[in-house]
Amino acid sequence: MALVRRPDSVNTALTAIHRRDAVETPEFAAFAGRILRACARRVGNGDVEGLAALVALRSDLDAAITEAVAGLRQPRWCYSRSEIARVLGTTRQAAQQRYGSNCS
Questions:
Q1: Could you give phi then psi for residue 18, rounded to 5 degrees?
Q2: Which of 1, 20, 60, 87 maximizes the CB count within 10 A of its CB?
Q3: How far apart are CA 19 and CA 13, in angstroms?
Q4: Does the pLDDT of residue 87 top 60, yes or no?
């Protein structure tokens, strides 16, 4: 944890503030992927009842992607369908069909 320095007139040993490191999106996504793979291993090791919960995560993931695309299409960012399609590795038409509307 990094410490934030205070002016020299303050005893930093007594008044230092601990700064929390920012969570970066690629690392956060990698963490989520590890959790999903761990869940799959647990189901695969005999937890047949857990299979329904794992499948339900698919719809949660689809909804999260749709929400993210909608956020990127908002006036603040207004990414084009072409830019979104490029990142997703698909065509502009496929991105439009799957994720919909114009900038609001």
A1: -85, 125
A2: 87
A3: 15
A4: yes
